[in-house]
Fold:
Amino acid sequence: MSTTASTSTVNRWVVLGASVAILLCAGVIYSFSVFALPLVQGHESWTMSQVMNAFIINGAIAPIPMILGGYIIDRGGARWSIMIGAILFVVGFALTGTATTLTQLYLYYGLIAGLGVGFTYSGCLNNTIKLFPDRRGFAAGVITAGMGAGTVIAAPIARGLIASVGVGQTFIRMGIVYAVVVVVASLFIRPAPVGYAPAGWTPPVPVAGAAPVNKTWREMLATPQFYVIFLMLTAGAFSGLLIVSQLSPIAQTASFGITAATAAVLVSIYSVCNASGRFVWGAVSDRIGYVKATMVMYTVVALSLLVLLTVQSQIGFTIGIVGLGLCFGGVMGVFPALTMKTFGPRFQGVNYGILFTGYSIAAYFGPQIGSRLGGINPADPASSEYTGTPFVIAIAVAAVGLVLALVLAQMIKAQEKARPAEQLATV
Structure:
């Protein structure tokens, strides 16, 4: 498959639209906070921490299907990877509504749905950005925004259904609807041809003897850039995952004094910012460069956390979560494009799957630090004073991310100086 846009029948905009539709469904996986309390209330022996383990498992296993799916995608099997993932996702999600034991909950929501989301996300993301070599940040932003928007759409629907038919039936009914959407949308997926170039766009041509960058995962692991980008991704995701796991309880503490109803609205605002930030930062990074975009994001994250620490009011809380939401979304939109720019498009599926393990590390430690060091009484958040310690740690992590971005920028400059003949695009 070595065709280009001028000879290929692949309509990249149709593939983009179908991928977004699929991820709008898969994005419900991040609305788990809506289901968590009803699950606890519906099962007398379950505790909140036990139920939350399902979400942790779901996120922790994500790199496994992303790497396996990436292997399939890099060999032209994007539709198969997405279809397999879509089926696993809807089956796991619907079966969650039948879970009567914690083991079943972990199996259905944590393992099966988690594997499905990983395959689906990897397929939709990595296949689509290969079709947009001229607008990588834009494509990655739109795709990941679809994932984020899924939470915005699903949360109010789930709340309404839970109130009327119960949490079990909500999982089943939403799962059936999602099954129809993802299967139909999967039919419109086409694998990106190797060397795809859209009509009217000419890829940067290096001088004679300078080959394009296309590193295998082994070659990627041999570069210092991989470890810097890996840690940058971990640092970038840390604060967003910390806040999203406990946004509502933090808002309701005596430190901020926000009511439960208003906290629910703020959760929606954060979700909207998360979704829009993926698109906005993806487009911005195409203009100013991916590394410069990450520098700005780490700075905004640190400032937003500082606001949360020092302006303990509803206004301060809102400003803080808006900044954090936009930048968490930005991390998810920029890093796929940064990975492809640094290591090439040919093996993007596997390469980004490996790098995404940094997200899983953040998904574990961010919520853990937030829940253990925040000092919140889960039974009555309003009686608690938030310690602010997790915010201080998150500021330090953001500062490390900024330093790493500066290091990566110097690496790129040194590389360009050593190989001036290579006409590298802006990074």
The mean pLDDT is 86. The two ends are 28 Å apart (CA to CA). The chain is about 75% helix and 0% strand.
